[in-house]
Design a protein that fits this description.
The protein is α+β, with helices and mostly antiparallel strands. The chain is 30% helix and 29% strand.
């Protein structure tokens, strides 16, 4: 049985994600189970949630900048939607007003990602969005018109908008999807096979705090973080590495020791 390690690399603006996982010659999929094996429902649920998180984080990092906005929309009692369909229509209508406003003001086309939250206890609906900037909060409140709005500029750190992405997925467990504009950049993976030896991957896997070997492998980037685990199912090391460009526009490097 021959094993190689595959790198699946995504460029997301100032940020980069790299997935490193094993591939085998005995019929196992790269980074996965044997073909006939089926994951348990709970295991599949966790995988699906993680995949949604990672996809959303990539979209956020690739499409939005420091001047863009995070929005939370809530309802006054009298305006609260009666069902899921009405809540979706409310978000769509709000986004249509935003598009018309931006066109009227000569602003760039609207980019957005939105999720709908439904409270587990009382069934209250909320909307969480990331949108293009350049609009003041009074205009946003007028366009919403159904309750209250909280707006704040996006804040980037070494991992970009990972916190925002995870938050949006966590609040969206009821709908299990997000709404996004069609003009977003969707990062596509660049795949490399066999560049890294088993020994190199193991060394990276054993120490996810030492930035030096990671930065040596990915020139032009600073190391942000790495998640590592060993799979009993495929007997290989798995890594998810996040980095940011040395010339990143929206943040400064956090000082590290060592």
């Amino acid at each position: 049985m021959r094993r190689i390690y595959r790198e699946k690399e995504y460029d997301c603006g100032d940020y980069k994600e790299i997935y490193i996982f094993p591939c085998y010659s005995d019929g196992r999929r790269c980074g996965g189970r044997k073909r006939k094996a089926k994951p348990t429902p709970e295991a599949q649920r966790k995988v699906n949630k993680k995949n949604r998180e990672n996809k959303l984080i990539r979209l956020l990092n690739a499409n939005f900048t420091k001047g863009d906005l995070s929005l939370d929309l809530t309802y006054e009692e009298a305006a609260h939607p009666k069902d899921d369909l009405q809540a979706k229509k409310d978000q769509q209508n709000f986004l249509r007003r935003l598009k018309r406003y931006r066109k009227k003001k000569g602003l760039s086309d609207l980019k957005y990602i939105g999720v709908i939250e439904k409270g587990a206890k009382k069934g209250r609906f909320h909307h969480h969005l990331v949108i293009s900037g350049g609009i003041d909060i009074d205009a946003l409140e007028s366009m919403w018109g159904k309750g209250f709005i909280k707006a704040s500029p996006l804040r980037f750190n070494e991992t970009g908008l990972i916190g925002k992405g995870k938050y949006m997925v966590k609040q969206n467990l009821y709908f299990k999807s997000f709404n996004a504009s069609k003009n977003l950049v969707h990062p596509q993976p660049h795949v490399r096979n066999g560049r890294l030896s088993h020994r190199t991957v193991e060394e990276l896997w054993r120490d996810t705090e030492d930035r030096v070997p990671y930065e040596r492998l990915f020139d032009g980037y600073y190391f942000a973080e790495a998640d590592a685990y060993f799979s009993d199912e495929d007997g290989g090391y798995h890594l998810l590495i996040r980095l940011y460009r040395k010339d990143a526009k929206f943040m400064k490097r956090i000082c590290r020791t060592g």
